[in-house]
Amino acid sequence: MHYGADYNPEQWPEEVWPDDVARMREAGVTTVSLGIFAWARIQPREGEFDFAWLDRVIELLHEGGIAVDLATATASPPPWASAAYPEILPRDEDGSVYWPGSRQQFAPSSPVYRRLAGELVTAIAERYAGHPAVVLWHVNNEYGCHLHADYSDAARDAFRRWLRERYADIDALNAAWGTNFWSQRYGSFDEVFPPRKAPYSRNPGQMLDFRRFTSDMLLECFLMERDLIRAAGATQPITTNFMGAFKPADYAKWAPHLDVLSDDCYPDPNDPESFRAAAFQRDLLRSLKPDVPWLLMEQATNALNWRPANAPKAPGQMAALSAQAIGRGADGILFFQWRQSRAGAEKFHSAMLPHAGTGTRTWREVVALGADLAALPSLPAGARDARVALVFDWENWWAVEGSDHPQNQVDYLAVVQRWYRALHRRHVQVDLVTPERVGEGYDLVIAPLLYLLREEGAAALAAFVEGGGHLVTGPFTDVVDEIDRFRMGGFQTQLGGVLGLRVEDFGAMVAPDAPASEPGERFAPFSGVAGAGMGTLLAEELRVTDASVEASFTAGRRAGAPAVTVRAGAGGGGGSARYVATIPDEAGVQAVVDHVLAATGVAPVLAGLPEGVEVARRGDVLTVINHGAEPVEVPVRGTDLVSGESVGGVVLEPHDWRIVRES
Asked: For residue 653, is it within any domain?
């Protein structure tokens, strides 16, 4: 189990470094991420490299038995780079420049940035590829975190190149984007620009492709650095740190290119339900590369600095959230950062070694967690433990939240996470997959708001139902193709037969939190055997052709009309397809999930637990955590992998946890 943090020795005088290593050994640190923001120190001027200080740091760590996740340092170009080459600076939709003075101030598609970054990566990799301390390579840092999209001239030129590769000729692009509308037809690719600021709504096909392009440009930067590291002879695994469900980068497309996935996760202590959002993020990482354990690359030991109010973690909460990551597939627990900074924008961000020193609760918890992790044996990897899949798809996310829809206030991620929370409360383990992957041994698939549905995904969903699986989907599902165009024949042209219905109107309603002065319906209550709840945002008008009604709307303009339907699969395998014609509130989603779990026989990982207790399976290992405020007795039996003791049930205090190999 890797344990450690980002280490930034360049922020401290050299006489502090030996003490850092000594304290790391005391804390049980095994691995540090080194050099993430050290470009200016490694390369003070173009063509000039200073590795002497980095050599000393790596040797000190190696002598102390601490491994290095060595970064390529390309995440924050030094001031000399943009002073000499201002064309590397990105621009926003208005054409305003993002200037130096922060971080990530580079245009990902800039040839000059890529050349400078490539020279740095080559120099670092050639020097340290064979160093025994280096066990992992860390490319860049949090790609796209602050710069979600670039609209510079470099992006313009790269976007045109990307479009030529995608469409081959301009007529194909015009057909895909429907440019005969509003006289947008292009005569050549040289007439196309990124979707910069415009008087009114922009072309939805162009917006969707620009999202794809932006993700691909960031991925190209990663691949360039990865290939340079390999060309230098490095054989260690290569990663870059993800940020959970991060909208600008399609991590499902990225994951195959990384040897091991790593993630940064910062649940908010002010939110008592934030542990469920953290669990969602861990399950997403595990699902993106299910056969390889992942690394929690960054979390906080205590309070942050960048939220409006930065609450401290409760006693034990840091270890509990670390155990959550392990239970959901992580083989490494790391933090930002090792020693709290004295200066700079993140000087109030907590660290393993805080300003107040080793007499603090934070330090005591850091040392205790290090000892517990050191006691763990190797944990099973690659097990497929979830029988439920929740469909999460980046391209669909981009399209759902496009403009000019019947309902323009849909938050796709929030809706998906609402369904996840309902399953999490019932202790059901979940994978998060694209629609094309639903057939990988699941019993139940839930696919909310699958507006953009590719042909391969639709075929996989249909085959899943006809093969005996149970599907829950809707509303605003199977509406457009992969280019955000309607298919001929209306809506649900691919899944209509599976669902036994077609949508005739989406029935948009006023958002529940709209001002009281805004007229219109806000809720569509529903009730039936599928449960009861409040529908929001959409209350669709269905034409049911071959399905049974499990719940109906009970008030408003859709009163008496179907709200939840079910159709048995035609293949004789016992499958079913349910459609929910609204976006239920929290209670409504929970009611539908409870009904579906009972109807399909999907069992929890461990039965009889209160909602504040979390349980996750990793092969034959169970991780149980009490996120609640009261002690809880948990009927888990086996061997406690930290203490080595046999347990026949455990009592968990608030924020207490156990990792147990089942009998």
From this structure: yes
